[in-house]
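BUG: 3D viewer hangs when loading the predicted structure for this chain

Environment: internal workstation, default settings.
Expected: structure renders.
Actual: progress bar stalls at 90%.

Input used:
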Amino acid sequence: MEIIKPAFHHVTFKTSRLDEMVAWYGTVVGARPNFQDANNAWTTNDEANHRVAFLSAPGLGDDPDKRSHNGMHHSAFEYGSFADLMSSYARLRDEGIQPAFSLDHGMTISIYYKDPEGNFVELQCDTYGDWRQSSEWMRSSPDFAANPIGTFFDPEKVYQAHKGGQGFDELHVAMRRGDYQPAGTPDLGLPA
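Structure tokens produced before the viewer hung:
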């Protein structure tokens, strides 16, 4: 029997910070509620009825051991170009929202943020602009096999180089090589 492959539709979070989460996802990815009441919200940033949903119920609270528990590490949103990703970085920076860490994964350039509940949200662009090519690179690249997590980079340094006229291809090679390393060791939200 043939496997029917459904498309991914949405992610739903349990939260004790409903209004804060709705506002944050509105700022970061442009998600706006199609419906919200005192305990729930269904938001979208496209034509779908919802892409990011929130459920708030009495008794929910923070998990002090979240870092060491199984669970989802991050959700991701993709921009159509590196220029759009850099524009988004600058807009969020100017709104006081700073990245948790940034990685050149080889097939994507990714900037990770933490939402008000401490969940990571990845904003990314495909380095090839073509999923077939980036998928093939993942499957066959010795570079990816040797470094599947990627190379950390300082998004402000990369943004300034891009703004100064450095082309994406040159920046991508330099980022993957480690030329734009951040100060300090980024916190990936995983146990030490």
